[in-house]
Amino acid sequence: MQRSRLAYLVLAGALVAGAGAVRAAELPDAIRQAGALRLTVNSTYAPMEYRDPATNQLTGLDIELAEAMAKRLGVKVVWSETPFEQLLPSLQTGRADFIISGFSDRASRRETADFVDYLTTGAQFFVLADSPARIEADLCGKKVGTTRSTSFPVEIEKWSKQACEAAGKPAVQYVPGENSIDVRNQLKQGRIDAAVQGSETLPYAQSNEAGKYRVLGAPFTLGYQGIAFRKDAAMLRAAVTDALRGMIADGTYKAILTKYGLAANGVAEPLLNAATQ
């Protein structure tokens, strides 16, 4: 009886190991042989990717998703950090195998990359809790800050033309920031009247600095965050997509999103180049 059970456990272990090998074999040879994915992030965009203040370790929703996908693929992740504006160049030069770092799928970025979209997002105005602004229109003529290297400056300009200038009101005055931390500091210092970040980041900011911020209205854009791949990386893109699909099916994906308060931002299945703007 014990011998039969031992044989069963050995067989089960071999099947599991074999399944892992099959998943790993779906990866490009260079990644499979190295046993690692090289990924780089801009760790200033909590809760997507940031350094835990208590441990100084990289953490966040994107970090956990990538680690879980790598485990399914039978490899590890070797992390590095870079400024946001260097994310796409890191992908194109091969320093990163793919990008998962609070990176929006945009049509303009698809000239050099394909996106597997995994999270809904939108540009969101927010102010200090004691701000006199009550609705978005109160920001016409005011200073609004956001990270310069994102798509948000263009989105703010579009919103200003439609909501302010078309109504005969003064345009929003855009103020650039280096990253979301810098923008929030400018807001707290009174250098800007309002700010814009991705809607998925604000619940964390509000919980981390309780009573400090207040959102205005709903997100004024709708889109997706995506995992960016080089155009010639179809095999890797397919392997990662399959891993993500499996995580959605077994609940791993939902559990990670729920941990960071973003279950409502989830997708039913991975989407390829789904953003329309």
Notes on the protein architecture:
By secondary structure, this protein is α/β, with parallel strands linked by helices. It has two domains: about 1-120 and about 225-270, 3-Layer(aba) Sandwich (D-Maltodextrin-Binding Protein, domain 2), CATH 3.40.190.10; about 125-215, 3-Layer(aba) Sandwich (D-Maltodextrin-Binding Protein, domain 2), CATH 3.40.190. The protein has nine helices and 13 strands. Strands 9-8-10-7-11 form a five-stranded mixed β-sheet, sandwiched between helices. A hairpin with a 3-residue loop joins strand 2 and strand 3. The radius of gyration is 21 Å and the shape is globular. The chain starts with a helix and ends in a 5-residue tail after the last strand.
Shape: globular
Order of helices and strands: HHEEEEHEHEEEHEHEHEEHHE
Q: Specify the number of helices.
A: 9
Ends: how far apart? 63 Å
- Provide the residue-averaged pLDDT: 90
The major pleated sheet works out as: 5 strands, mixed
Query: Structural class, from helix and strand content?
Result: alpha/beta
Secondary structure layout plus pairing:
Blueprint: H1 2-25, H2 29-34, E1 36-41, E2 44-45, E3 49-51, E4 58-59, H3 61-73, E5 76-81, H4 87-92, E6 113-121, E7 123-128, E8 143-147, H5 152-163, E9 173-177, H6 180-188, E10 194-198, H7 202-208, E11 213-216, E12 223-230, H8 234-250, H9 252-259, E13 271-272
Parallel strand pairs: 1-5, 8-9, 8-10
Antiparallel strand pairs: 2-3, 3-4, 6-12, 6-13, 7-10, 7-11
Helix pairs in contact: 3-8, 3-9
